[in-house]
DNA sequence: CTGAAAGCGCTAACAC
DNA sequence: GTGTTAGCGCTTTCAG
C-alpha cells in the first residue's frame, strides 16, 4: 500500500540498493544517478519506513525520559529542555512517569517498553543505594539524572546541590543577614538533595563564622508549596527570629513567602528569601524570587550527548562519567537590598 | 545476539509458529504444548521484539501528544493525564512541543516522525480555521484537543469553555457580587478560548440582568501569571470599582491576586476571585483559588479512546465525533463568603 | 492443532 | 559506482 524503495528503484531504473544509498547520503554516487533517484522519490512521494529501518539497524530514534511527575514544575521544565536537546539531535522522546514510586521506577527499567527506545534518561527519586545493582541488568544505554545515589555502571549528570545551597546561603550572608532559616530539610538524610543542600547551607554558615541553629531549620515532607507554607507556619509559631530564608526549592519558597506576607513580614526588608531550581514562576511572583539556577539546560544537553555516545558505540566499554552542571545565583527582588 | 522465537522453538521442540501462537494468546493450543513453550520462554528469558512486531503489524504501541509547551502548567497536567490514560491502554506517549508556533504545529503533523506512532493527539494553538485543510492530508489517526477551530475530518475532544465561564461568573453573582471584572480577554477574538469564555461571562451577566461594562474587562497578551498581574494593575489604576474577578485561567488569577493583595484588597472579602483550569497550584495558594475544573481527566480518557478506535479500525470511515467534557465549579477560599 | 514458508521495508555484505 | 542477496524478528496465509 505505501511506497517502498522497490517502487522508487523501478521508476528510476536502478536497484534498490542505489535508492538506499541516495536516501542515506552515501557519498559515492554519480550525481546523475542521484538526481534520477531523487526525482523518482519526489514523484512518488516516497518516505522511508522508519520502523523497517529500526528493525534492521536496531535503532529507533527514540529515547525515553523517566521522571517522577510532570505536575512538578521542575520536572516539567526538565522535560522541556530534554526534549529540546533531543530534538536538536533528531531524537523523539517518550516520557514515562514513575510517580516517585520505587516499584514503578524499577518496573519501568525492566519492562518490555524499553525495547522501543535506543536509550534512557533516568531520574529516580525513590531508589536508594541498595538498588544500584538493578542498573547492572539494564543493557539499554542509560544516563542517570539527579542525585548520585548510585555508584553504578552508568553515566551520571547532575547539579551541584551542595555548592548551590552554599552559594545561596552566602548570598544572604553578604546581604548582612545572620539569622538564616531553612525550609526543606529531611532529618537524617545525607545523600539526597535535601541532605546535600543542607550541607551546603552549613558550610556557608561555617565560612562566615555563624553558628548553626537547629531551631531555624524547617523540615518538610514533600517539596511542594504546601510543605513550604506549613514549615514556615511552624517556624513563625516557634517564635524564632530570622532575617533570611533559604528554601531548598522554589515551590517551598513560594509557599513560605505567602505565609510570611500574611504574617506581615516584608520581603526582602524583614526577611530576604532565596529558593532553588529557577522555575519559570519565580520570574512572575511578587516579589520575584531569587534562586539558584541549577543548569537544567546544561544537564539536558550533556545527558543527551552522553546517551548518544553510548548509543553510537554499542559494544564499547565507556568508563562511567559524571558531569556536574554549572550553577548560578539568580538575584531577584526577594533578596535585593532596599534602596535606602 | 538477542533471543528470538527460533531459539525458543528449538528448545521447546516446536515450530516458530507455535511459539508465536503462545506469545499472542492464540486460543487453540494444546495446554501441554503451551506449557512446554512457556517454560522454554522462561528458561531463555525470551522477550518478543516489539520493533519486528511493529514492522509486521504496522503498529508501534506509541502515540504522540503534540502540545504547545510543557512549561505551561495546564499542558503539563494535560500531558500527565494523557499519559495515565494511554498507559492504562498499554500505550507509550511521545510528547512533541510546538511552542504555539504555527509553522512548527504544521511541521510536526507532516514530518517523518509520525511514522513511529499509531496515532496523534493534537493540541494546536496557533492554527486557524484556514489551516483546516491541512488535516485532510494526514492519514495517521488523529484526535484534536482544545478549541474547535477546525471543522475538519477528525474527532475532537474539548472543554465547555463558554458554559464553564458562565458558571464561574454565575457563582460570583450568587455570592452577591455585581461588579465583576475579567482578566484574560483578547479583543475581537470569537472562536478561541478567550472569545468563548468571554461569551460565557456575558451570558451570565445577562442572565442576572447586570449590564456589561467594558471598563471591567482586562485584556492580556499571554495567559501567564505576569499577564494577569499586569492587567490587574491597569484595572486598579483605572479606578474602576469591582467586587468580583473572573480570570480566564488560573495562572492569570494568581498574578492578579498578588497585585490585589499588594494593593491591600482582601480576598474574598473585597474581591471574590475565580480562575479556570483547576491546576494543582490552586490548592496550595493563600487563599486557595476557586476555579473551573474543565474535566482534564475526561478529556484525556475520551481522546485516547477515540484514537484507539480509529487505530483499531484502519480502513473504517468513522464519522467525526465531538466530545465536550463535563466541567465543575470548584469552590475554594477565594470565593467563600466570610463567616459573618 | 501445528509446521513450512513467504514476506513487512530496509540495510549491509559482497560481488561485479 | 551499482546490483544481488541475505537477513533483522515477527506474523500470517496455507498446508497438513
UniProtKB/TrEMBL annotation, chains A, B:
<dbReference type="Pfam" id="PF00356">
    <property type="entry name" value="LacI"/>
</dbReference>
<dbReference type="Pfam" id="PF13377">
    <property type="entry name" value="Peripla_BP_3"/>
</dbReference>
<dbReference type="GO" id="GO:0003700">
    <property type="term" value="F:DNA-binding transcription factor activity"/>
</dbReference>
<feature type="domain" description="HTH lacI-type">
    <location>
        <begin position="3"/>
        <end position="57"/>
    </location>
</feature>
<dbReference type="InterPro" id="IPR046335">
    <property type="entry name" value="LacI/GalR-like_sensor"/>
</dbReference>
<keyword id="KW-0238">DNA-binding</keyword>
<keyword id="KW-0805">Transcription regulation</keyword>
<protein>
    <submittedName>
        <fullName>LacI family transcriptional regulator</fullName>
    </submittedName>
</protein>
<keyword id="KW-0804">Transcription</keyword>
<dbReference type="InterPro" id="IPR010982">
    <property type="entry name" value="Lambda_DNA-bd_dom_sf"/>
</dbReference>
<dbReference type="GO" id="GO:0000976">
    <property type="term" value="F:transcription cis-regulatory region binding"/>
</dbReference>
<dbReference type="InterPro" id="IPR028082">
    <property type="entry name" value="Peripla_BP_I"/>
</dbReference>
<dbReference type="InterPro" id="IPR000843">
    <property type="entry name" value="HTH_LacI"/>
</dbReference>
